[in-house]
Every structure is written in structure tokens, then in C-alpha cells.
Amino acid sequence: MRRLAHGAVDRLVDRLTALGQEPVARRGSATDFAALVDEPLPRAGSGADSSLDFFFSRVAPGMSKLDHPRFHAFIPSASSFYAALGKLLDAGANPFVGSWLGGATVASLELTVLRWIAEAVGYDQRAAGIFTSGGSIANLCALASARAARGHDDRARHVVYVSEQGHGSFEKAALILGYASSAVRKVPADDRFRMRVDALGAAIEQDRSTGLMPLLVCANAGTTNTGSIDPLPAIADLCAAHGLWFHVDAAYGGFAALCDEGRRKLAGMELADSLTLDPHKWLYAPMGTGCVLVRDRAALEAAFRVHGDYLKDVPRDEVNFFDRGPEMSRPGRVLAVWMLLRSVGLDALAEQVEWDLRVAGLAERLLSEVPSLEIVCPAELSVVTFRGRARAGETEASRAARDTAIMERTLASGELMISSTDLAGRSALRLVVLNHRTTEDDVRRSVAGIARAASD
Fold it and tell me: Buried b vs exposed e over 227-255: b needs ≥16 C-beta within 10 Å?
């Protein structure tokens, strides 16, 4: 066991050491990748050494490397090795953190780290919460809590409000919880892609006038598309005036509040009734580590509390996390976050977030200096949106095709990876900085690659 584990760790460290020299990602069909990894069901095992060789020679090289210093696509997950060690502890010790009886020490640790996180981002430290698999389940927990607080019986009349720039996971959460698609209102955004408070207020008034029951507003603390921050204080005031649950989806941007600049930009987030955060984004934890905090513990537990004869030995006067989320069996997700926070400390993480913001600013400046490109939306956090500048007499379809070509050429080069999206009906490209391995030189190299692709 020691030999195998030491060998695996050595090879993982070798992989991390070589990341910057490896291709970021590559295109491939199902047939291409099946040729690499598909095998018949093994009747007799090949042994762990052979399996490790298989992974590092055939699986790992073809992965999209989200921890690569020039992976700028989507919202990356660049796990710290300290956090990876915590996940190793979770897998090796294999705690059950669904109930207090099943894993009291790790459950107690989860309560502690949830309090740490609330304190770190300026939220109510008495809030109840739970680590989830990601922002999607965290958003579901928040909506379920709001529904429990406001009454299940009125579900048919409930309306929830999300920005047209909001993450699709919230709409999916509503569908999972039994709401019709008509119960989700998409609120228009302004020219900086932030929710329009006037449009939100008008939608609430209109729905009330027709006998519907506005339930919740989901505001963004950093949209996935542009990193835009909705006007949180104004939305909080509107929710308070109308008696609505105020939820903030801060899955991407919330941990910017670790540093002074980020906390100023996210002012109003602390007013939320519930808050989604993703440690596997801007807290450098491994994939599969999300978090939700809910100010009203009773609402969170009312949404998920279960009973069963097989649970008669579970102490009801302690925290049982199966009463705070949809899972009964749950791993020790907290261990990755605990290991990272305890090992490096909050100050170092705040400095890293500040660095990411600064390097994203550098990326925006460099891109703005490329004559064939234009910035679409100034970076509020660490997402830079840009597009190919229209040429004289060029159609929008032709210009958009050049955006796609830039994305494909940079991906094919293996040097970097960016992503594309649509903003206000026009295509755009996105470059994200959210990686503790990304240096200024990496950003300069990425922008040079983009400029070359744009000139072809």
C-alpha cells in the first residue's frame, strides 16, 4: 500500500511539474478517446501497477487540464496540492458525514470550517450550511429552504426571479423541485450585464397583481459569462420591501471577498438569506466541493429533514447533515477545504485572490492593445470578455465566425484554452484568470497566442 501510494503521488507531482509544458486540451471524438481507454470488462485484474501506468500514459495526457496555468476557459478548477492532500485523507479515511453518529469528528470539523468560510467572506457566522458537490446542489438547497420558509402549500403560485445572465443551475433546481418552467422569471440585464433592478421591481408588481406569489430573487456575485456583479444592496432592499427571500449565487465570485478589493465590489452579499459558494473555484479546492450557507437554520432543515426507523439511533439533538441537504451518504468534502485553510492560512489565500484580480487586469489591458480585438465588458472580477473587431462591410455572422476560429486555433495550438459565449445577441470570447499557477508571463503568452490567431 505504501509503495503504490508513494508511487502515485510521485507521478502526480511529476504531472503538476510538467503542466505548463503540456497541451492544455485537445479536440477528439468518442471514437478517438475510446481507442485510448476502452477495454473489455476485466475478469482477472491486471494489478495496480499496470492500472497506474494506464492512467498516466493513456488517460491523463488527453484530459482537459483545468489546473494548467493557461487554461482560461469557463470557470476553471485549479486545485491546490494542499487541498488535494485533504481529498486524499477523505478517500483514505472514508468518513461517513451524513449523520452525527456516523462521523462526529468530521461533522464537527465541517461545522467549524463552514463558520470559517462565513467569517472569511463577511457572512453571518451563525448561519447553517453544508458542503455540497458544487454550486448546482447548493442553489437547489437554497431554493428548497426558501420554499420551506414561505410554505410548501403555495408552490403552485410561487415565482422565482433570476437574471438573464444567471447560471442555468438555478432554473434546473426549480425544475427538480417541481416548479413549472413558467415559474422562473428571467430579468433583463443592463449594458454591463447586471440585473436591472427596475425591471425586477416591475416583474414582481406584475406577478403580484395577477395573484401569483413572488418567492425568491437569485442575484449574481460574479456571473459565469462576464463576472458581472448584480447591484446587491438595491436588490436586497427590494426583497426586504416585498418580503422575498434574497439568494446570492456567489459560486464563482464569492471568494473574491477574501481580499479588500473583492469585498468592496461584493458589498451587499452579506445581506443574503442564503449564499452559494464554490470552494472548487476561487478557493482552489478539488472539483466536487461546493457550499451553501443559509441564515435561517430552521428553513434549511425543514427542507430536508427525514425520518425512518433505521435512523432511531441517530442523536436528534446534534447536527445531522442529511437534514441539511439531499444526500444521506456523503463524504468528508470538508477535509480538502480544512487542509488548505489550516495549512496556508487566510492571508495567503487573500493575497492569491488579489493576484488573480491583478493578472486579469493585465490580460484585459493587453487584449485591448490588440488592434483586431475589442473588449466587450470591462472585467469586474477575473473574467475578461472580448471579440474580434468588425471589419468594414463585414456581416455579424462573418465576424462571429472569426471569433470561433480564434477559439479553435488557440485550442489546436495546445498553448492555451479560452471559451466563447453570446452576449446581447453577439458572440464573444472569454479569458478567465482563476489559477494560483498562472503568472504574468502566462497571461502575456496567452494574449500573444490569441493575437496570432486573430491575425490569421
Answer: bbbbbbebbbebbeeeebbbbbbbbbbbb
